[in-house]
Amino acid sequence: MTSKKKVFKIINFNKKLEKYANSKTFSVVEDSGFEYKSVERIFDHIEKVAKIPSVLSEYFVREYIIKQLKLINRTYRVDKVGNVYVLPKNESKVLLSAHMDKQAKPNYYDSDSSIVGKLDDAIGIGIILALLKNNNFHGLFTIGEERGLLGSKYAVKNDLIPSGVDKAVVIDVSPRPPKKGVQFYSSFNNKRASINLVEIVVNIAKSLNVNIQPMSGAINDGTILIRKIKDTIAFESYIDNFHSSNECCQKKEIIDIYRIVEGILTI
Ligand SMILES: [Zn+2]
């Protein structure tokens, strides 16, 4: 559960983010506050990653991530297959994960309340990089997700998940239109996260006035991470034109995921 003080802070944040989500371009909202900068940071990272020309290899996406980590003085490791592990500043039990591989050519443009481009999984990477600036958690950027969850399999098989991590949040995208809101996965195959964590997510979403759609059947790195990290969940934003260079996503949905995950980091 979040404390009242924290919830209040998040609600204030919420209003500024909604204003931003409804703006046509980034420059329409005049606000120099920290919250606005956080959101601007998300879309800046998404744009940069979406434009990186790396259809077959994660190399340039990894280089971008490493450059950002150096800029914010975060320590990282790269394993033999190329997964990137970001170490927390202080002890943390939470790991956030997104994948670095892409399935189509680079592209990005802003389209009113949506963004269009090669967004899978630039969205997950952008949200995590933006959160890393001011939050304490483990990060895992994986290789080969689209080629059979190769990076997460390697990390779990070789016991590379940091000890002490007991919650994982995977951020990815989905071609399945939800009935309402952000797609929330709390089970993978026959394994499911604890009721406690699900309740925490539901309460955070309520406090933010964000609709979440409980879903099952996701095939993403969470399918593998849950073998090692019992409390693994995933958020997926709905993407039109899935696995093309013109994937389309609502800005609001991306911001909603950012806010929920930030809420999880405050518990
Ligand atoms: Zn993906």
Give a structural overview:
It is a single chain. By secondary structure, the protein is of the alpha/beta class. It has a domain at 4-168 and 254-265: Zn peptidases (Aminopeptidase, 3-Layer(aba) Sandwich), CATH 3.40.630.10. The chain contains eight helices and 13 strands. It has helices at residues 4-22, 34-50, 59-71, 122-132, 150-157, 195-208, 222-225, 251-265; strands spanning 76-78, 84-86, 94-99, 108-111, 114-117, 138-142, 167-174, 182-185, 187-188, 191-192, 212-215, 231-238, 247-250. The strands form three sheets. The protein has an eight-stranded mixed sheet, with helices on both faces. A three-stranded antiparallel sheet has the order 4-5-13. A two-stranded antiparallel ribbon has the order 9-10. Strand 4 and strand 5 (114-117) form a beta hairpin. Helix 1 (4-22) runs antiparallel to helix 8 (251-265). The model is unreliable at 1-14 and 22-34 (pLDDT under 50). Zinc ion is lined by residues 99, 120-121, 145, 172-173.
Characteristic terms for this protein:
267 residues, Aminopeptidase, eight-stranded mixed β-sheet, three-stranded antiparallel β-sheet, globular, disordered N terminus, binds zinc ion
